[in-house]
Please model this.
Amino acid sequence: MRCSSCEPLLDRYLEGTLSPREMIDTNAHIASCSACARLLEEVKVVDALLFTTDVPELPNNFTFAVMAETLSMPAPKPHTHRLWSFFALYLTAAWMAALAVFAVSGASLPKLGVAVAAAFGNLAQSFAGGAAGIAHGAPVLATFGAGVLSIDLTLAAAAAGIYFIIRPRLAAHLASTSEAQ
Ligand SMILES: [Zn+2]
Model:
């Protein structure tokens, strides 16, 4: 018998469902072949694991112990980085808008670095000499500045709108509904 014909029979060899002829051949092969003897041991281990029906025994106070452990854990901290995530979102949006402007205007990436450096120079200049500084820059930089500025204004307007218009109305609405009850 060859190993290739012995290996598929090992399962049924363990079950004892082989024909007497196969049983004798397999037995003889395993006795003479260490590889198949080792494989038989592995199949035995796997079978033993598969047919194990033992359920781990839990202590009587298992549920209580788990609940007590859960209650003794520190309460999760409230999120304190909401302002930071808002700021990060704003920065991402501003840079996306700036990159979109550059992509549309057809400026290449190396030029972008130069333009950003120029934009910072322009910004300092505009702080010194008013908004005229941006207008005197390249058209792309003016668009860049205008884009960032418009996002600024939109976000500020949205924040102001939420704070000064929606919030009082919501408060009034909540007050009226609680009075009605
Ligand atoms: Zn073999």
Notes: The chain has nine helices and no strands. The chain has a mean pLDDT of 78. The longest helix spans residues 139-180. The two ends are 89 Å apart (CA to CA).
